[in-house]
Amino acid sequence: MIRVAVVGAAGYIGGELLRLLIGHPEVEVAGAVSSRFPGKRVDGVHPNLRSATDLLFCTADEVEDCDAVFLATPHRAAMTQMDRWIGRAKQVFDLTGDFRLDDPEVFERYYGVEHAAPHLLGDFVPGIPELYRDRLGSADLVSVPGCMAVAGVLSLYPLVARDLIEPKAQIDARTGSSGSGATAGQANLHAERSGAMRVFAPTGHRHEAEISRHLGVEAAMTATGVEAVRGVQTLCHATLRPGVDEAAVRRAFREQYQDEPFVRLVAQKRGTFRYPEPKILLGSNFCDVGYAVDAETGRLVTIAALDNLVKGGAGNAVQCLNIRMGWPEDLGLSFTGLHPA
Amino acid sequence: MIRVAVVGAAGYIGGELLRLLIGHPEVEVAGAVSSRFPGKRVDGVHPNLRSATDLLFCTADEVEDCDAVFLATPHRAAMTQMDRWIGRAKQVFDLTGDFRLDDPEVFERYYGVEHAAPHLLGDFVPGIPELYRDRLGSADLVSVPGCMAVAGVLSLYPLVARDLIEPKAQIDARTGSSGSGATAGQANLHAERSGAMRVFAPTGHRHEAEISRHLGVEAAMTATGVEAVRGVQTLCHATLRPGVDEAAVRRAFREQYQDEPFVRLVAQKRGTFRYPEPKILLGSNFCDVGYAVDAETGRLVTIAALDNLVKGGAGNAVQCLNIRMGWPEDLGLSFTGLHPA
Amino acid sequence: MIRVAVVGAAGYIGGELLRLLIGHPEVEVAGAVSSRFPGKRVDGVHPNLRSATDLLFCTADEVEDCDAVFLATPHRAAMTQMDRWIGRAKQVFDLTGDFRLDDPEVFERYYGVEHAAPHLLGDFVPGIPELYRDRLGSADLVSVPGCMAVAGVLSLYPLVARDLIEPKAQIDARTGSSGSGATAGQANLHAERSGAMRVFAPTGHRHEAEISRHLGVEAAMTATGVEAVRGVQTLCHATLRPGVDEAAVRRAFREQYQDEPFVRLVAQKRGTFRYPEPKILLGSNFCDVGYAVDAETGRLVTIAALDNLVKGGAGNAVQCLNIRMGWPEDLGLSFTGLHPA
Amino acid sequence: MIRVAVVGAAGYIGGELLRLLIGHPEVEVAGAVSSRFPGKRVDGVHPNLRSATDLLFCTADEVEDCDAVFLATPHRAAMTQMDRWIGRAKQVFDLTGDFRLDDPEVFERYYGVEHAAPHLLGDFVPGIPELYRDRLGSADLVSVPGCMAVAGVLSLYPLVARDLIEPKAQIDARTGSSGSGATAGQANLHAERSGAMRVFAPTGHRHEAEISRHLGVEAAMTATGVEAVRGVQTLCHATLRPGVDEAAVRRAFREQYQDEPFVRLVAQKRGTFRYPEPKILLGSNFCDVGYAVDAETGRLVTIAALDNLVKGGAGNAVQCLNIRMGWPEDLGLSFTGLHPA
Question: Where would I find the Semialdehyde dehydrogenase NAD-binding domain in this sequence (chains A, B, C, D) (predicted)?
Answer without folding.
Answer: 3-139
